[in-house]
Amino acid sequence: MAKRSIGPRTLLYPHPVLIIGTYGPDGRPDAMAAAWGGICSSRPPAVAVSLQKVRQTYENLVERREFTISIPSTDYVREADYFGIVSGRETDKFAATGLTPVKGDRVNAPYVGEFPVVLECRLLQTVEIGMHTQFIGEILDVKVDESVIDADGKPAVEKIRPFIYDSMRQEYYEFGDALAKAFSVGQELKK
Fold first, then answer.
1. DSSP output for 125-149
2. pLDDT value at 191 more than 90
3. Among the four residues 37, 111, 128, 191, which has the most C-beta atoms within 10 Å?
4. What is the rounded CA–CA span in Å between residue 107 and residue 115?
């Protein structure tokens, strides 16, 4: 099948919508939306997020070395977008959105109380990459709302209802239905 080159771009499907929580220099809770991120290690469990140096969250992370990642549900797409378009230097984003900053149990960083999944992270290392710095954090704890846990004790993505970002179209999308069982459907092709 023919492919059309569109050049080097920040294109990857899907981009997660991650809300990075930190405390600012004055101790005020701050949060920003980031889409350049994902799991980067199983042992230790770690996540990486890439931020531009001009962001307040960048300064907060360098100073405090601890952060949270809150995963919003589709109910909060407006608030999550707001966290990405307003600077924490001039605005108390939690007050403006009416969302609740909750101090992490394992780290000195706030998370968004209304969002169903939270990762508490301690900075392991940073990597300079062009106009971004990648912050790699060890996941010290994951908190999940009781309402999104299934009978098997595991979080259910259809109850969490996270959403994704399309960097080419600058739009948010919902997830669809389960497609197949991982590490199983491919077994059909084994010979």
1. EEEEETTEEEEEEEEEEEEE-GGGB
2. no
3. 111
4. 17
Which residues make Cβ contacts (< 8 Å) with residue 47, sequence separation at least 6?
Answer: 37, 38, 39, 40, 69, 119, 121, 136, 137, 139
Average pLDDT over residues 99-108: 98
Contact in structure between 65 and 155 (CB atoms under 8 Å): no
Domain count within the chain: 1
CB atoms within 10 A of CB 36: 19
Asked, for residue 54, whether it belongs to a domain, the answer is yes
Q: How many helices, marked H, and strands, marked E, lie in the chain? A: 4, 12
Q: Is 9 within the bounds of a domain?
A: no
Residue 70 burial (CB < 10 Å; 0-12/13-18/19+)?
Answer: buried
Q: Record the tokens describing residue 54, joined without a space.
A: 């001009």
The answer to whether the CB of 94 falls within 8 A of the CB of 86 is no
The amino acid occupying position 82 is Y
* pLDDT at site 188: 87
Q: Is residue 10 part of a domain?
A: no
**Nearest to 97, CA basis, from 108, 107, 110:** 110
Q: Are residues 70 and 33 in contact, defined by beta-carbon separation less than 8 angstroms?
A: no
Average the pLDDT over 52-75 and give the result: 97
Q: Print the domain residue range for 160.
A: 15-189
The CATH number of residue 87's host domain is 2.30.110.10
> Is 172 inside a domain boundary?
yes
Cα–Cα distance measured from residue 69 to residue 51, given in angstroms and rounded to the nearest whole number: 13
